[in-house]
Structure formats: structure tokens, C-alpha cells
Amino acid sequence: MELDRAGQAEAFDAIGDHYDEAFPHKEGQVASAEWLIASLPAGSRVLDLGCGTGVPTARRLAQAGLQVVGVDLADGMVALARRNVPTGVFHRADIADLRPGGPRDLGRFDAVTAFFALLMLPRAEIPLALQTVHHLLLPHGLFALSMVEADVDDFSIPFIGRTIRVSGYLREELREVVDAAGFEIVAESSYTYAPATVDVQPEVQIFLRCRRRT
């Protein structure tokens, strides 16, 4: 499959620190991170896909004594994450780079987070990305996922002064896609959230807590 990332990384490089200003309240991410911390032994390896600035997820996981590895498509976000979470290890990489047999092998992980990372992909790539997460996890590893509930595919939206393309599912379809990728959904929550910026509409955020079946 030919990947099209045109403009996505550049948009987030330009957004930089303004992302955390626009999204100051991340209760769903914090709650999911606390679930991982309570569920994992100290020293467990956790991969943060689409780590962004490293705040709050990577920072909180690292503070709790977990080994954090983060990847992001935007060089600027990786630089911010390295500054914000000095004990973490961060790479500029596409999730497609981490697929079985792909060009980047970061090892296996006890847990993976993907908070709003997969919504940056066209729908055709999302099942493949979930299969990659399954590959990256150790047996019965944990997976914390969030998506915006929306029936859209590679749809352009204004975002903090830039334009990005996003995809989403309605709730039941998202459950089906996650289940088909080999995950058991152990808990689900949702939040209605209005970002602190005028060009992003209120959204319903779905958070899934999952476990790799085998």
C-alpha cells in the first residue's frame, strides 16, 4: 500500500507547543495511563505511538517507573518529547515502519498506547496499524486506544491554524475493527470535549482499554 503523509507531519511541526495549549484537558489519556501504571510491573516497556509532545502520557508513564519509547511522524514533536521526558527514548518514525519485517525494529512491549494517532491514517490503513500493534505487543500485552467518534475517511479539517486529514468510526464499528485485530476490549469510556480553540468543533472521544488475546 502506498502511503500518503503529505502535510501531516508538517502541520504538527508548525503546531508545536500550541497543541498542548489547545488541548489542556486530557482526562481520558490520564485515566488510561493510570490504568497501565496500575496493571504493569515497574520497568515494563511501553510504546507511545504518536507521542506528540510527550505530555501527559509519556511523562506520566516515565514518572511511574516504566520504560517509555515514543514515536511520532513530526520531527518537532519528537524534539519536544525528548525535552519534556528526558528519561524516555523517542524516534521519528511512521507506524508503518514498525510492521513485521519493516525498517524499524524497536523490540516487543508490555503495553502500547495510541491516543488519537490512528485517526491520522486513512481507514484502509487502520486495520494494518492495529495488526502492527498486535505484533509489537507481548502475549496478553495491554493496549490503550483513543479515537474521535466520526464516520469519516481521510477527511480534511482545519486544526489549530493548519489543515490535517482525519478518519474515524462510529462506536460499534470501532469495536468491531479492534476485535478483528485480535484484541479483547476490557473497558470503554467516552468524553465530550470542546478544545480551547475556535477552529476545532466539539467531539466525542472514545477510549478503549484492550488486551492482546494471545
Secondary-structure topology with pairs:
Layout: H1 8-15, H2 18-22, H3 27-39, E1 45-49, H4 57-63, E2 67-72, H5 75-84, E3 89-92, E4 109-115, H6 126-136, E5 137-148, E6 155-159, E7 162-166, H7 171-180, E8 183-193, E9 203-212
Parallel strand pairs: 1-2, 1-4, 2-3, 4-5
Antiparallel strand pairs: 5-9, 6-7, 8-9
In terms of DSSP E residues, the strand content is: 25-35%
H and E string: HHHEHEHEEHEEEHEE
So how many helices? 7
Let me know the largest β-sheet: 7 strands, mixed
Q: How many extended strands? A: 9
Low-confidence stretches: none
Strand order of the largest sheet: 3-2-1-4-5-9-8
Cα separation of the termini: 27 Å
User: Using only CA atoms, what is the Rg?
Assistant: 16 Å
What is the average of the pLDDT values?
Answer: 88
Fraction in helix:
25-40%
Classify the secondary structure makeup into a structural class.
alpha/beta
Note down, in words, how this protein is organized:
The chain has 214 residues and is an alpha/beta fold. Helix content is 30%, strand content 30%. The protein is built from seven helices and nine strands. The chain has helices at residues 8-15, 18-22, 27-39, 57-63, 75-84, 126-136, 171-180, and strands at 45-49, 67-72, 89-92, 109-115, 137-148, 155-159, 162-166, 183-193, 203-212. The strands form two sheets. Strands 3-2-1-4-5-9-8 form a seven-stranded mixed beta sheet, sandwiched between helices. A two-stranded antiparallel ribbon has the order 6-7. α6 links the parallel β4 and β5. The longest helix is centred in the N-terminal third of the chain and has 13 residues, at 27-39. The protein is globular. The protein starts with 7 loop residues before the first helix and ends with a strand. The mean pLDDT is 88.
